[in-house]
Specification:
heterodimer, A: 272 residues, mainly alpha, MetI-like fold, B: 393 residues, alpha+beta, Rossmann fold, OB fold (Dihydrolipoamide Acetyltransferase, E2P), six-stranded mixed beta sheet, five-stranded antiparallel beta sheet, 10 helices, 25% helix, 32% strand, disordered N terminus
Amino acid sequence: MAEARRIRPFAVRHLPGFPTMALICFVCLYAPIITLVMFSFNESMSMSQWGGFSWRWYVAAWENERVQQASLLSLIVATCASLIATTVATAAALGTTRTRRYRGLTGIYVLINQPLMVPEIVTGVALLIVFAMVKVWTGYTGIGYLILAHTAFCIPFAYLPIRARLESMDATLEAAAADLYATPWMAFRRVTLPLLWPGILAGGMLAFVISLDDVVITEFVKSGGQDTLPTYMLSQIRRIVTPEMNAISTVFLAISIALVTIFFLLSRGKKQ
Amino acid sequence: MYRACEGVGKLQATVTQVQPGERAAARLGTGQGAVAIALKGVSKVFGSGADAFKAVDDVSVDIRQNEFFTLLGPSGCGKTTLLRLIAGFEHPTSGEIRLKGKDISPLPPFDRPVNTVFQSYALFPHMTVAQNIAFGLEMLRRPKSEVQETVDRMLKLVRMEQLANRRTSQISGGQQQRVALARALAPQPEVLLLDEPLSALDYKLRKEMQIELKRLQSETGITFIFVTHDQEEALTMSDRIAVMSEGNILQIGSPREIYDHPAQRFVADFIGESNFLKAEVVRPLDPGAEIRLPSGATLTAGVPEGMRPAGSVTVVVRPEHARVVADPAAGALRGRLTNIVYFGTDTHYHVELPQDGEFIVRMQNQRGSEASFETGDEVGIEIGDGAPQVLKD
């Protein structure tokens, strides 16, 4: 036994203090979230004293007209942005994997993934300036700007899972389809697309979640009176903190967890 | 047999003894048989400049209708590239590919009446066995009833009726192979291309599929172009074999011609086992030539078509075309036995020759005739007249 212990390979798990470190990390990550969820069910107004269980704040949030409007805007923007981003990302993924390697392909990867690297605040300011000019020219102040901005930063999130799926897919299948008289479009529709579908769904969902909880860029791009759920919450919290925010956050959390779980299951399914 | 050749169409019963390659010829009443695919000066270069690589180098060949034609060669010899050129996945750098006289080289794969059985099978994983087989017919917009009927016929042909509604991931490798075949045969292509389709199967299954493939070919009457690096597979299945090396076809012929009369050293070496000997041409004969071995023995030898041998040449002798004899003076060659390897059906004798190195003789083991040779013995090697074959290089 002693012999076996000595030759055990290096593993971070066996370093002294590892369990303590892990515990601290988990507590830091989840304790605030648990507190937040807990107090969303608080009967009293207090954020620190427990006054008994109640759905009161959920009802209040549900009946709050501004919350309703903000939620609707969030959903519209997230839906439109993730749909457009996923379509564009699918085309981009096909264009970067289903071709012979060409010069500048790496450059294109970097270009597509750029929004992951550029600080959001920079994108926000840049869009603010450009859209301000466009607004002056056209006079249009609708939600188009928000959708456009969200689409832009959602593309890489949709692109990555789709490309991963395409790369793990045997390109011989498409050759086989072509060999069996399928035109490029038919081969795409009957072979590539059905096999790519889990990747597209995963990419779309990821884009949706990312769009849903964006604050920084939305804050810069939104026109007066427009508020998505996160920016509405931010403006509320500046004035008064009520457990209503906790309730909204908890619902938000639940939706995100559900989507991320589905995303995880879908991307795991591709490896089989 | 000859009568059948004269009259087109009245040859049913008589052709059974004819070689399959000749059968097509007989049916058409010509000596050569109609050409299904003709390659004319086809070259394929990958890359450009200093990186350019000539995968196929000026290949010309006529492949006849209803022929089982094999491209045989080591990996990297260009045989798969040639197949991909015919399928349309690659386009030739120069030259023409004619299908029944029509140049198809500019056409995309989906416009060619040619189907492929891929090495990896490439079955569509999101479809059932039946859907896979139906795919080509659906792409050709055949009526539903015809598709259904053909799929049923194909399932029956490859004996997969029971598994029609299975997913392709739920069937074994051998069954996947059959589905891949049925899928490629269903649209009734002019030519079926097979890219090392048996290499993923184990030995026993491979033997079964070899017979199965021959059966399918004769039942469907479709021209098969088969790519393999396995010489045994090529010899047992083909009507004709083209041996390839470095993008060139070195020799085309029936398995028997290729094996018994290899024209070049590479062909002799790649197919079967060979002994190479130096020899002098004494005089040309018709056919063949008389040669003298360094030991002084004179023999008649086969000569490749179109070659007029003279001076010193290399000849090949197959191990089973020679015999070891106890009396060193009795054979055409003499040497010392260095190794005896027992193989069950036969025994290999390794004989060290004074001039030409090692010579291997293969003799069949028969009951009661256990030879009494021992390593170290001085022995003679008997070579029959006509057994040596003169090589071009």
